[in-house]
Amino acid sequence: MGDEDRGPVSLAEKLDRLFRERSRERGKSLSANDVATDINIRAGEQVISGNYIWQLRKGKRDNPTKRHIEALAEYFGVPAAHFHDQQDAGPGGAAADRTGRPPELLEAMQDAGVIAMAARFMDMSAESRTAVLEMIDRVRKLEGLPDVGSTTGNGAGNPVGNTGETWRTAR
Question: What is the DSSP string of 5-25?
Fold first, then answer.
């Protein structure tokens, strides 16, 4: 069966992808014990064990508690919903486009750094989100990157919320 025929992406696959991405960022392999230790230290109590994380990552367990999901999501900088959304994987493991969003946007949305930024961005006011988008546009200009459109308003992009912001991609 080819990648394009795959069904929903499992919790184990999502967790494994996050482990691989974080390992690349660190430049060394990340173990389940490393993750559990960091989560437990941050929480100041025993929240999760390395063995349990390993079982989740390998698909031997697949029904973590809400607390476990939230702890893993916080550690990896993704929203907890990341582990619940069952998206079809397309070629190369990328999520299938069910939203009409451009493929490059979907690819960027899978990047751990983009997910971490989006998680921090979500609960900001509309004014703060607009200010952040304006700063990003200024930095893009300083780096000589192409303009990607207006930061607010009714652009041709796909809405990301009820405040008028749009997903914008360079064309």
Answer: G--BPPHHHHHHHHHHHHHHH
Q: Output 49-58 pairs: Cβ under 8 A, ≥24 positions apart.
A: 53/15, 56/11, 56/12, 56/15, 57/12, 57/15, 57/16, 57/19, 57/32, 58/12
Give the integer Cα–Cα distance in Å for 4 and 94: 10
Cβ count within 10 A of residue 106 = 17
Q: How far apart are CA 50 and CA 28, in angstroms?
A: 17
pLDDT at 133: 86
Q: How far is CA 170 from CA 105, 114, 131, 137, in A?
A: 10, 16, 20, 12
DSSP 106-126: HHHHHSHHHHHHHHHHTTS-H
Give the pTM: 0.49
